[in-house]
Amino acid sequence: MTSEGNGDVMEDPLIILESGEVYRNPTEVKMSQIVLPCHANHCGELSVGQLLKWMDSTACLSAEKHAGCSCITASVDDIHFEHTIGVGQVVNIKANVNRAFNSSMEVGIVVSCEDLFSDQQWKVCHAFGTFVARRTEAGKVQLRQVVPFTQAEKMEYSIAAERRRMRLIHAEIVTDLLSNDTAQKEGDSQEYQDAVSAERTRVESVELVLPPHANHQVNTFGGQIMAWMENVATISASRLCNAHPTLRTIDMFHFRGPSQVGDRLVLKAIVNNAFKKSMEVGVCAEAYQGGDHIRHINSAFMTFEVLDEEGKPRTLPRIRPEPVDGKRRYQEAIARKKIRLDRKYLISCKQTQVPLSVPWDPSNQMYLSYNNVSALKLLAAKNNWILNSEKNKVNLYTLEENQVLCFKVETQVDVPAERAFVLLSDLRRRQEWDMHYEKCEVLNQVDEDDTIYRVITPSASKGSNAQDFILLASKRKPFDTGDPYVIALRSVTLPTHPPTEDYKRGEVLCAGFTIWEVSSTVSKISYYNQATPGVLPYISTDIAGLSSSFYCSFSSCSQFLVKNKDSLATLAFNAL
Questions:
Q1: What is the pLDDT of residues 151-195, one digit of tens each?
Q2: Where are the alpha helices (DSSP H) in 242-300?
């Protein structure tokens, strides 16, 4: 859901179709712009506001290409800007629709920079926007489904449903954390002494929306509104530090209503809090026409840094908030910083950069759940699995990437997919068929989709202690026809259950089941595991062909599912 900079831009390998043509995503739109002085700020770098306008235009054209009608920007996920772009360099923007829902669609946007003299390219940011197809004279538009073709497209298609789920509950997550007493107590009045008054950073500016600012439906471009918001936010940040700030992050935001030609757009900004090396600026956009009432268009939170001569963040002055609302914004900014770090750490970074076991707490629950499910979906979407062995219709596949060994065990069972999902999602029943599960207990029933278990497994070698695992199990039903049921597992740490001398603490980075409906009575079950040191001893002999314990386990799993597919317990569970 967030943006990340990974250095050099990696181009997707070319795919040649049977016709001899090079494959290109049918919704793909590209834009290339050379940065001129009129696009740049005082430092000779591309204005972020201008970049946002180009990104929004490119993404909107991609959405309209798929929808076949005009579209409007509904929301934009977090954007992390990792690099600046200088005058004379080329901005390359590529957008394509990852997945369509009913009347909305997710558009992925990749921004890279190209230096024409050195022939170097690097990634600037990666963003996701949600666009909504406008009603036509025939009524509400029902979008056709996207059909992913390449491995990358299939991965993005699969995870798009999980990102949508995150967007829908984002406001709820923020509200829950802001109500946490811990966040509220961090605003100590001692911090306000010898600090810059927040009132000094207040900015208000008005813009008249003219035809060049709007699309063919006379609605103001979302990118134009974002550009105006970035402008007042930059002025506000400059007033705190008496220097030119650099925008690093824009938090996820939603457009609450449309703006049209003729609107007077009032933009307000103020520094909410200054941390040691960064500051948060709150911005809002309101619109009115003549004597009409004021409409709230959008609010956003932007994080700025001030760089020294070596390009490193400088220490910033402290902020002294104004009474009442200022103190509230000050304290809420502390909570949002926690959310920001969780989102960037757990969602934006690559799977190989996430530690084996991540601390769990209520504030990062949804981000851990997202990371858990999306990691499994990414692993399942890979197309370079190698068949290692096959026995009685149970297949063992392996995949080695970046010196990490992954394996997949797959078979079909004569059990409806939903029944298999219910039976396998309760890890307490796994010891009925898996010899590697000696004991399993629920430590925390987080919600209906997420549960934390403690699992005890026998020792993998003689003379060593048994292992225990603290696992977060995240389950998802299919979002749409053609999606699998998903049960994702990963290790977390709980302060209430530290490692003990009696057990060797094992860790799972990515594991779980996908269950596909083959027919109304048959399902295909795939079990995945990204082998860690704690897991590898259990499966190394299977991969080497010296054992068939996993075949035995999966055969037992099939028997367990068939035996219990019509059990009263299963039926009762489904009735809940």
A1: 888 888 888 888 888 887 776 776 776 666 444 444 444 456 678
A2: none
SS3 (DSSP) at 369: helix
CB 8: neighbour CB atoms within 10 A? 10
Give the C-alpha separation, 458 to 470, whole Å: 15
- Tell me the two tokens of residue 352: 């190989």
CA angle at residue 144 from 139 to 150, to 5 degrees? 160
Supply the pTM of this predicted model.
Answer: 0.79
Alpha-carbon distances, residue 557 vs 389, 551, 562, 569 (angstroms): 18, 10, 9, 17
- The partner residues of 511 in beta bridges, in order of sequence, read 489, 529
Query: CA angle, 447 as apex, 446 and 449 as ends, to 5°?
Result: 110
The alpha carbon of 510 is separated from its chain's Cα centroid by a whole number of angstroms, namely 16
Instruction: Report the amino acid identity of residue 395.
Output: N
What is the b/e burial string over 16-37, where b = at least 16 CB atoms within 10 angstroms of the residue's CB?
eeeeeeeeebebebebebebee
Pairing of strands 319-320, 196-197: parallel
3-state DSSP call for residue 114? strand
Six token digits for residue 550:
């996993």
Distance of CA 320 to the CA centre of its chain: 34
CA distance linking residue 157 with residue 165, whole number of Å: 13
Distance from C-alpha of 414 to C-alpha of 520, rounded to nearest angstrom: 9
- From the list 510, 528, 555, 566, the residue with the least C-alpha distance to 411 is 555
Burial class (CB in 10 A: 0-12, 13-18, 19+), 179: exposed
Q: What is the pLDDT of residues 432-473, one digit of tens each?
A: 888 888 899 999 999 899 999 999 988 766 667 788 899 999
Which distant-in-sequence residues (6+ apart) come within 8 Å of 418 by Cβ? 485, 574
Residues 6+ apart with CB under 8 A from 90: 32, 33, 34, 35, 113, 114, 115, 116
- Distance, in Å, from the CA atom of 36 to the CA atom of 121, rounded to the nearest integer, reads 18
Q: How many CB atoms lie within 10 A of CB 557?
A: 24
What percentage of the chain's residues is helix, strand, coil (to nearest 5)? 30, 35, 35
Distance of CA 267 to the CA centre of its chain: 29
Structure token digits, residue 438: 């000696």
Tokens (6 digits) for 34: 């050379």
Pull the structure tokens for residue 229.
């918001």
CB 260 within 8 A of CB 209: yes
**What is d(CA 412, CA 542) in angstroms, rounded to the nearest whole number?**
20
Specify the residue for token string 């007033």: 239
**Count of other CB atoms within 10 angstroms of residue 503:** 16
Structure tokens at 509: 């980075």
